[in-house]
Design a protein that fits this description.
The structure holds two protein chains of two kinds. Chain A is an alpha/beta fold. Chain A has 31 helices and nine strands. In chain A, a hairpin with a 2-residue loop joins strand 2 and strand 3 (68-74). The model of chain A is unreliable at 1-18 (pLDDT under 50). By secondary structure, chain B is α+β, with helices and mostly antiparallel strands. Residues 6-78 of chain B have low confidence and may be disordered. Classes of the chains: A alpha/beta, B alpha+beta.
């Protein structure tokens, strides 16, 4: 944030160079701090968090530094440039075809060897490179010290140590980037070529020369393509096969030679070669001293303990909801008092226009301020802390075997928990899963996860008018439903279940400023985008009410709503509007009947209505993202599963609850 | 099966792979050797995971179907008694004691899983240590090359190590 501000002061010298445009890209392993650096550089507010896979799409931002207009690009975190995940293809195509002026390779200093494995692949891409040695504070706490100069000598590219969360070293990083740009325009690059063992290197060079002689004119560098061919990269193979079949023949015979020498598949030979180079470099530049177990490690023992681990997992989700209710209710009370003067007027007396404006438009604002904002703020505050602390990966680890029972693995729990915030980014996050089938199963489960909108309905209706214990019971029932539906869907959609391969990072204490900023970003989008919808929806329903159109709709749906589900007739309208935004179920009730709903709904009806609201249909935004990610057919199928299970479970629940009250 | 018989059968299998022409390997796509019968551990493995019989093999350049299973890491076994001993001392990753280390010898799995494991640094010859095992057949946490990795049981069951 600060960077773009502080360097805006233009000295005369800077004026001269003004308007030079640059593109830089941040690349590196998952969860090494790319998005943190991106936010610092551009002053943006990309969502960050302590779990691998947050950035599933390329993000762009701008920075003005030393007379350069710089486009900063945040690439998704990857471990390799292969073709088996979408992120990896996206990243390598970006680097090869958009040709950023400099790539900043962000490296986790505490896991140097594995990170250097990726650095080596970036070196093969033949791009101007700056290495940012991030999280040196974490490395130090693990007893690791790194000699920056030595590392710089090995690669022949600038290496800048940094602690991105505190903004340390980022100014130096940008200076190094500019230096690389200037030195390149003067035409003296110092970058070295990292060579493989002779038997492999000889064949790489032979293939490189052969590719070069063919003048293929593909965006990728020849040496990189040669290595990829030997690694059996299907995309590069197809790309070249269409232009020069003979290159493929040569690569086949060369990789056969390598396989005969090493008696292992060629891709494995190259991978282990690269790792042994990374290992050599890492052991040359870093020193490891013995350390006491860090606080993070001790904490880790508790949250992944065979008994306590499950307790923590439950506490995380339960605590999130309880906290949201307690703080939300407190805030809601205060705000309700402010708006106490608001009482809906009777449209029969005041006429339709007044009722639309007062009951509808203004009522929408009142309902939004008193019911949505108080719950959304504490919810996102806590969710951000959970995301940032790194506990999500622990919960994923503990719940892996459980998730296998519904055809998924532990990592799928991360989008599922995010689904408690909002289904839309959660479904987007399912991209961290490996196969389409897993993504579909996870997305189905996510549509049953009560997002913050549904939480507002549950807390605002059930917790207030029937008791908090019933609200929590609804969440437990919901988890059971997710499991049962997941199990059925898993059997209906057979296929290979992949397993969990996930990096577990150290715990981190989330910084208050980051948490506050991200809470604000998420709340802001609700206020700006969703508030107008509240006002319009509320006004619309008032208009329909005033002109007597609600009646026939309610009557039409009453066999289902009144007959089967035991709800008041107005529920039909609420549920139709609820498809736009789930909060409408509560908001419109408030707009029509005022803040005290106990005279309108019995406790049983509040619970049934909230249960139906939780299950019955994804909201429009969720349907849209489902259709975009999986196609309309799948989106509709998921919606139908929602609808059918809601009607079945709701009818049974209303009858069972009638016995309880 | 005696040790000598086993070494013979190893030779036979490897003979098939390496003495034949490459085209044969290409067509067969996957070739295997058996884990010895007389080995108690191996029997345990076999009981736990029946498909363990499909052992080592060599990748086919033209084949990257993600669905079929193959492993590698023992291709340099010639079938003499030393190798047999080595093979017999293999245990699954999960059978390591907590806090103990082992050297990866053999990795099995679909093409995708194998490539992912390789990229994360789990390569034959790498030292891994077991940190913890989640209860109820849950995931396994290991340290490899300084980073902590969580692996599902179905994956870690197919990583075989030599205890150190």
């Amino acid at each position: 944030m600060s960077m773009s501000m502080t360097h805006r002061s233009k000295s005369p010298e800077n004026e001269k160079q003004a308007n030079k445009n640059l593109t830089i890209a941040l690349a590196g392993n998952a969860n090494v701090g790319k998005s943190v650096i991106f936010n610092h550089l551009t002053g943006s507010n990309q969502i960050v968090g302590n779990w691998p896979g947050k950035t599933v799409e390329i993000a762009r931002g701008k920075l003005y530094f030393k007379g350069y207009n710089i486009d900063v690009v945040d690439l998704p975190g990857i471990y390799s440039f292969s073709t088996y995940s979408l992120e990896e293809i996206v990243s390598r195509e970006f680097i090869a075809f958009e040709k950023p002026d400099v790539v900043i390779n962000v490296v986790d200093a505490s896991v140097l060897e594995r990170n250097l494995y990726f650095t080596l692949q970036l070196m093969e891409m033949k791009i101007p490179l700056v290495v940012c040695l991030n999280q040196i504070d974490v490395a130090e706490s693990k007893g690791i010290t790194i000699e920056v100069q030595k590392l710089q000598d090995v690669f022949g590219v600038p290496v800048v140590p940094a602690v991105a969360v505190r903004g340390e070293g980022l100014h130096e990083l940008m200076e190094a980037v500019i230096e690389v740009v200037q030195r390149r325009s003067e035409g003296n690059a110092t970058r070295k070529i990292i060579r493989y063992m002779p038997e492999v290197e000889k064949r790489i060079e032979k293939l490189t020369d052969f590719i070069e002689s063919r003048n293929l004119n593909i965006g990728y560098p020849s040496r990189w393509m040669a290595i990829k061919l030997l690694e059996n990269d299907s995309e590069i193979r197809n790309l070249i096969a269409s232009r020069a079949e003979e290159v493929i023949h040569l690569s086949k015979s060369l990789s056969e030679e390598i396989e005969n020498i090493y008696q292992e598949p060629c891709f494995a030979v190259i991978t282990s070669e690269r790792y042994s180079i990374a290992n050599r470099i890492a052991s040359k530049v870093q020193k490891q001293s013995k350390m006491e177990p860090t606080l993070s490690e001790r904490l880790d023992r508790i949250v992944t303990h065979s008994v306590l681990g499950y307790v923590t997992s439950i506490l995380v989700v339960g605590g999130l909801l309880l906290w949201t209710f307690i703080v939300g209710n407190y805030l809601s009370d205060i705000l309700s008092q402010v708006f106490e003067f608001f009482q809906p007027v009777d449209p029969q007396i005041s006429g339709p226009l007044v009722s639309i404006l007062w009951n509808g438009a203004f009522g929408g604002i009142v309902a939004g301020v008193t019911l949505v904002i108080p719950f959304v703020i504490p919810f996102y505050f806590m969710l951000t802390i959970i995301e940032d602390s790194g506990i999500l990966t622990r919960v994923a680890f503990m719940m892996d075997s459980f998730m296998h029972k519904i055809g998924l693995h532990g990592k799928a729990l991360i989008p599922l928990i995010l689904g408690y915030g909002c289904n839309v980014p959660a479904i987007y996050t399912t991209r961290i899963l490996e196969t389409r089938r897993e993504r579909l199963l996870a997305s189905l489960a996510i549509t049953f996860a009560p997002c913050s909108a549904r939480t507002i309905v549950i807390l605002g209706l059930v917790a207030v008018f029937a008791g908090i214990e019933w609200a929590l019971a609804l969440y437990v029932v919901d988890i059971l439903i997710i499991f049962l539906i997941g199990r059925v869907a898993f059997n209906a959609l057979p296929g290979e279940t992949t397993g969990l391969i996930m990096e577990m990072h150290s715990f981190r204490f989330p910084s208050l400023s980051v948490v506050l900023k991200q809470t604000w970003t998420r709340t802001k989008s609700i206020i700006y985008i969703v508030f107008p919808l509240y006002i319009m929806g509320s006004a619309l329903v008032q208009g329909l009410y005033a002109f007597g159109i609600l009646e026939p709709v309610s009557t039409f749906m009453s066999p289902l709503t009144v007959g089967w589900l035991g709800l008041p007739a107005i529920a039909g309208v609420l549920l139709i509007f609820g498809i736009v935004r789930k909060e409408y179920i509560l908001l419109l009730l408030t707009a029509i009947y005022g803040i005290d709903l106990s005279s309108v709904l019995t406790p049983t009806q509040t619970i049934t209505l909230a249960l139906i609201g939780m299950l019955y249909f994804p909201c429009i935004s969720t349907i849209t993202i489902l259709a975009r990610e999986f196609g309309w057919k799948s989106a509709m199928a998921i919606s139908m599963v929602n609808l059918v299970s809601a009607i079945l479970i709701g009818g049974v629940a209303s009858r069972v609850l009638a016995l309880a009250f | 099966m005696s040790t000598r018989k086993f070494s013979k059968s190893l030779k036979r299998w490897f003979g098939v792979i390496y003495n034949s022409s490459m085209s044969r390997v290409r067509n067969s796509k996957i070739s295997c050797c058996e884990i010895p019968n007389n080995n108690q551990k191996a029997r345990k493995l076999r009981e736990n995971k029946p498909e363990i019989d499909v052992q080592f093999c060599r990748a086919d350049l033209t084949c990257n179907k993600p669905t079929y299973s193959y492993g590698f890491g023992m291709c340099n076994i010639k079938g003499d008694s030393k190798d047999v001993e080595r093979l017999q001392s293999l245990i699954r990753l999960v059978d390591l004691k907590k806090g103990h280390s082992g050297k990866v010898v053999l990795v099995k799995g679909s093409y995708k899983v194998i490539r992912r494991l390789l990229d994360m640094g789990i390569i034959p010859g790498t030292t891994v240590s077991l940190i913890k095992i989640a209860p109820l057949g849950g995931a396994v946490e290991i340290v490899v090359r300084g980073s902590n990795l969580a692996l599902s049981r179905n994956i870690s069951d197919n990583v075989f190590v030599e205890p150190i």
